[in-house]
Specification:
Elements: H1 2-28, E1 33-36, H2 43-59, E2 63-66, H3 71-79, E3 85-89, H4 90-98, E4 111-127, E5 142-144, H5 151-162, E6 171-173, H6 177-185, E7 191-196, H7 201-209, E8 212-214, H8 219-225, E9 235-239, E10 251-263, H9 268-280, H10 282-288, H11 311-319
């Protein structure tokens, strides 16, 4: 009996040690902080690199960024557990959270908002000499919608339809901003939509190297695209004269907020630290990225279309008086 008892005690001890070790590891290890961004010439990509570096330096915790096809791709990567954060436009966050549109078969209830940052704006750019003087003239021409599965591609379809142009009536190309610039430069398409912040590096590069221009939307199209019952996240946006080379007049277009989505399973403490470091290093971000001039913590919690703030972000916004 003594031998059996001793053997039993040894077994119990081993089980306790193993379970204790595995429990400690499971409780202490969070997923790496990875921010999914966008295509290489878009604002998401360069801003993501700057943000991840800033967070790493300020928090002493490694935060990495990676390229992607943009909003839809980012949220799919998040829902699959491949990344913990991603840039996205508000309409895609809304679709993911509610399981509609692009996420009808893949609802992502664990999406949360860390911050809305700046307006994402459609730049419909056409080659001079193409005969395209308005968005409706794109009918029958080659047009770049954006990368497959991106918010740009979705917005391109909507803006064409709002101008009476069906998708079937154009020579459609689905590529990212870099490829879009190349196609326009080589005369393989006549127009493209660069859906990003202002100023856009892709639009700047294109307009400065190729004889091209940004087109204004028609008033009727703007009314359609900003209808609150259908598109509550959209708003009329003016790209001020002189923003790009050879742009003597204001360009009237449509935009919505772009922001940072974060998975609900990232700890409240970690998201609080990320949010705090974001806003307390705004001056550094402005030095490294022009679009950061448009960042405003007062706007960070607006226009989220009912997608919840992460508790860690909410804690910080209450702390600075943006939320009650």
């Amino acid at each position: 009996m003594k031998k059996i008892s001793r053997f039993g005690l040894v077994l119990v001890a081993i089980v306790l040690i193993v379970s204790g070790c595995s429990g400690a590891a499971g409780n202490s290890k969070e997923k790496p902080l990875v921010l999914s961004t966008g295509t290489t010439t878009g604002v998401f990509y360069s801003l993501g690199a700057l943000l991840s570096t800033t967070w790493t330096n300020e928090l002493g915790t490694q935060v990495t960024s990676q390229g992607s096809n943009g909003s839809v791709d980012n949220l799919n990567l998040m829902s699959q557990g491949n990344v913990t954060m991603g840039f996205s436009t508000v309409n895609m966050m809304y679709q993911a959270y509610n399981g509609v549109g692009n996420f009808e078969e893949n609802q992502y209830k664990d999406i949360r908002v860390l911050a809305n940052l700046y307006p994402n704006v459609s730049h419909v750019i056409a080659l001079e000499g193409s005969g395209i003087e308005s968005v409706s003239d794109i009918k029958g021409n080659g047009f770049v919608f954006g990368a497959p599965g991106s918010a740009t591609a979705i917005e391109s379809k909507l803006l064409l339809e709002a101008h009476g142009v069906s998708v079937d009536s154009v020579n459609a190309n689905y590529v990212g901003f870099t490829e879009a610039v190349d196609l326009l430069r080589n005369g393989q398409v006549e127009a493209a939509n660069i859906y990003t912040g202002v100023p856009s590096s892709a639009a700047t590069e294109l307009i400065s190297t190729v004889d091209s221009k940004v087109l204004s939307f028609s008033e009727d199209a703007i009314k359609t695209l900003t209808d609150e019952s259908d598109y509550p996240w959209n708003f009329k946006h003016t790209i001020e004269a002189g923003t790009y080379d050879n742009q003597p007049e204001d360009i009237i277009t449509v935009g919505q907020f772009s922001g940072i989505a974060v998975d609900a399973n990232v700890s409240e403490e970690k998201v609080y630290e990320l949010t705090k470091a974001l806003w307390e290093n705004l001056d550094k971000l402005k030095e490294g990225q022009a679009v950061a001039e448009q960042f405003d913590p007062e706007l960070a919690v607006q226009g989220t279309a009912g997608v919840p703030l992460h508790p860690g972000a909410k804690k910080y916004y209450k702390e600075i008086g943006v939320l009650e």
